[in-house]
């Protein structure tokens, strides 16, 4: 629950600060009114209003599942609202597809990157452009993209392949791609999650350049308070699909924002740091493991985790965290070293054997790796218990028992 506890502290004063002049902004450039969206069993958005003014960086803040992405997908024509209206540049619009949104000057950089790694930067920018039909004139496109890059002050090697770029550079490719399609309003959904702190600074400074110098308006979706505080002019906070507050950032504090975000005051130093002092439960000894490219991703990792403890593993994405979690879960072999659980050597045990010992694993990519979206909750639960004699009778699954188990899990957690 305390994800922002960590994000609050490091270098909050380091981020480039936006200029918050008293830019009188009479009319919103984008106005959403009464947007409601239901998914089966979930009211993702409930009568949401959003006003974005020209030339501002507008932060949309909310916890996981608050409805931020759904709202952005509606503004970008990817999702149709059940109710509500949109006005863009003073005109009532209805987007049936992202193509419609782009025609009205709205571009989006998605929460998950959507570039083709094996293609060059230029190919990625040009790919799928509505004007590109039939024969592709890459040379003409290159000149256009270069001019655009110069105008916006980007320096990305257009000939580089996307897999060669850092996350920060990939982000710029996505932004350039949106601008190349004529975006005047740029939606960025959680753009900083995979970036290093210096890359975050570069991104924020770049966005400020876009709004100040180029008349671009930015909607910045995030759940990171320091970013909202330093980089936005205005903020709309969503909680459980509802707008709970709209503020000028200059009038907000992190405490106010977090209060609205979670619906109560949050004590920032609430974790009881006294060590629980239980017995060591999970011990890693000189672990080494290779990543998918065959490179050594873990070298000599050792730790001891006691009963009741929370161990934080920090690092920029791609520095071995994922491999470590996989080795602990049994999904990736340890090249050397050992893992002990409750005194037992489990280094060679399968994921199933570890699960039966009581080790659960929630991967970062939950929707791709750990669950099947088209399955019901009961069916997803079944994936973990279909081998359990308690839930099978002569090889036939005990559906009623599994449903009761799912209910028990739901009410317990
Ligand atoms: N296609 C879908 N089908 C069913 N439910 C969905 C779908 N998309 C989103 N939801 C649900 O709608 C709610 C809002 O989700 P959304 O992704 O918009 O939240 P978010 O604020 O972007 O969260 P995060 O910070 O995790 O990105 C969640 O309960 C989510 O499970
Ligand atoms: Mg989201």
From TrEMBL:
GO terms for molecular function: ATP binding; ATP hydrolysis activity. Residues 30-265 form the ABC transporter domain. Pfam families: ABC_tran. Keywords: ATP-binding, Nucleotide-binding. SMART domains: AAA (SM00382). PROSITE patterns: ABC_TRANSPORTER_2 (PS50893). InterPro entries: AAA+_ATPase, ABC_carbohydrate_import_ATPase, ABC_transporter-like_ATP-bd, P-loop_NTPase. The keyword DNA damage does not apply. This is ATP-binding cassette domain-containing protein. It comes from Candidatus Segetimicrobium genomatis.
């Amino acid at each position: 629950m305390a994800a922002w506890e960590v994000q609050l502290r490091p270098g909050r004063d380091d981020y480039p600060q936006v200029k918050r002049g008293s830019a009188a902004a009479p009319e919103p450039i984008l106005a959403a009114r009464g947007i409601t969206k239901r998914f089966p069993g979930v009211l993702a958005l409930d009568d949401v209003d959003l006003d974005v003014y020209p030339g501002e960086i507008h932060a949309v803040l909310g916890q996981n599942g608050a409805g931020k992405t759904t709202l952005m997908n509606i503004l970008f024509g990817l999702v149709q609202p059940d109710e509500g209206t949109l006005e863009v540049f003073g005109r009532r619009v209805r987007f049936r597809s992202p193509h419609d949104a782009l025609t009205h000057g709205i571009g989006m950089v998605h929460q998950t990157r959507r570039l083709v790694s094996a293609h060059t930067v230029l190919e990625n920018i040009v790919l799928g452009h509505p004007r590109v039909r039939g024969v592709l004139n890459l040379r003409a496109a290159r000149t256009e993209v270069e001019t655009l890059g110069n105008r916006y002050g980007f320096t990305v090697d257009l000939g580089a392949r996307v897999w060669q770029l850092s996350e920060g550079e990939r982000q710029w490719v996505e932004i350039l791609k949106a601008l190349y399609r004529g975006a005047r309003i740029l939606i960025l959904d959680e753009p900083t999650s995979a970036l290093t702190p210096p890359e975050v600074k570069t991104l924020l400074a770049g966005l400020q350049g876009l709004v100040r110098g180029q008349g671009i308006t930015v909607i910045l979706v995030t759940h990171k308070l320091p970013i909202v505080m330093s980089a936005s002019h205005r903020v709309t906070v969503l909680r459980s699909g509802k707008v709970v507050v709209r503020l000028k950032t200059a009038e907000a504090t992190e405490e106010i924002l977090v209060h609205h975000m979670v619906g109560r005051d949050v004590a920032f130093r609430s974790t009881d740091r006294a060590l629980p002092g239980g017995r060591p439960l999970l011990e890693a000894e000189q672990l080494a493991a290779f990543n998918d490219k065959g490179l050594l991703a873990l070298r000599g990792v050792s730790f001891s985790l006691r009963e009741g403890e929370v161990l934080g593993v920090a690092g920029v994405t791609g520095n071995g965290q994922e491999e470590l979690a996989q080795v602990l879960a049994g999904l990736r072999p340890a090249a050397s070293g050992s893992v002990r659980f409750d005194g037992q050597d489990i280094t060679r045990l399968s994921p199933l054997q570890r699960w039966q010992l009581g080790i659960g694993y929630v991967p970062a990519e939950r929707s791709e790796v750990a669950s099947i979206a088209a399955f019901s909750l009961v069916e997803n639960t079944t994936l973990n218990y279909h081998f359990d004699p308690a839930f099978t009778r002569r090889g036939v699954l005990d559906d009623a028992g599994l449903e009761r188990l799912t209910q028990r899990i739901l009410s317990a957690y």
